[in-house]
Amino acid sequence: EPEVTQTPSHQVTQMGQEVILRCVPISNHLYFYWYRQILGQKVEFLVSFYNNEISEKSEIFDDQFSVERPDGSNFTLKIRSTKLEDSAMYFCASSLRQGADNEQFFGPGTRLTVL
Amino acid sequence: QKEVEQDPGPLSVPEGAIVSLNCTYSNSAFQYFMWYRQYSRKGPELLMYTYSSGNKEDGRFTAQVDKSSKYISLFIRDSQPSDSATYLCAMRLAGTYKYIFGTGTRLKVLA
């Protein structure tokens, strides 16, 4: 069964460093998303991406964040200068469609630890 | 008032019991309602996706949406120890992409 994959599973970085989290969405999906989950808190939407453009973003997704689809398979989230409060699980998701059939399938997540 | 509210649990039930998990919400414009299962330190796994009011059944799982009461439920029949996980409800407005999640309910099914 096709699934979303993410690498690395765990990333440790120093405050102020740049990190890139990588995702391979389900191959025929067209819509891509990043969510995060701070330990013990709810899953929160960051951004959605379609046709090489951001289609929607939350207030969390500030200028420190960027997303890119560098090739036909990968989808990345970059955090330019990490802060302690960026420590969280980051989930990539993808969906085939928008509208009524927007079922989003999540990857296993990348645990980001900022020291 | 929180946009989506969910009892965090934990909810402990014996194997074979019928489990009822619930979420309430404040925004009557939500149109799409989802249930995810999340095992510890794993990604959310989509269980049910429903649109509008009514029931949807898939195997041992039934999702119920009552838009007039702003209340959704997930029923698990014949619960198994492998159903022990955190269950997340999520909702979406028409015309948007973002899912808004509840905090999740931890379920423990005791053998």
Architecture overview:
The complex is a heterodimer of chains A (115) and B (111). With 115 residues, chain A is mostly beta strands. Chain A has one domain: Immunoglobulins (Immunoglobulin-like, Sandwich). Chain A has no helices and 11 strands. In chain A, strand 7 (65-68) and strand 8 form a beta hairpin. The mean pLDDT of chain A is 94. Chain B has one domain (4-110): Immunoglobulins (Immunoglobulin-like, Sandwich), CATH 2.60.40. Chain B has strands spanning 4-6, 11-14, 19-25, 30-38, 45-51, 54-58, 61-66, 71-76, 85-93, 100-101, 105-110. In chain B, strands 2, 4, 5, 9, 10 and 11 form a 6-stranded mixed beta sheet that branches. A 5-stranded antiparallel beta sheet of chain B has the order 1-3-8-7-6, with no helix packed on it. In chain B, a hairpin with a 4-residue loop joins strand 7 (61-66) and strand 8. The mean pLDDT of chain B is 93. The interface between A and B is medium-sized, with 27 and 23 residues.
How are the secondary structure elements laid out?
The complex is a heterodimer of chains A (115) and B (111).
Chain A lengths: L4 E3 L2 E4 L5 E6 L6 E7 L5 E8 L2 E5 L7 E4 L6 E5 L8 E8 L9 E2 L3 E5 L1
Parallel strand pairs in A: 2-11
Antiparallel strand pairs in A: 1-3, 3-8, 4-5, 4-9, 5-6, 7-8, 9-10, 9-11
Chain B lengths: L3 E3 L4 E4 L4 E7 L4 E9 L6 E7 L2 E5 L2 E6 L4 E6 L8 E9 L6 E2 L3 E6 L1
Parallel strand pairs in B: 2-11
Antiparallel strand pairs in B: 1-3, 3-8, 4-5, 4-9, 6-7, 7-8, 9-10, 9-11
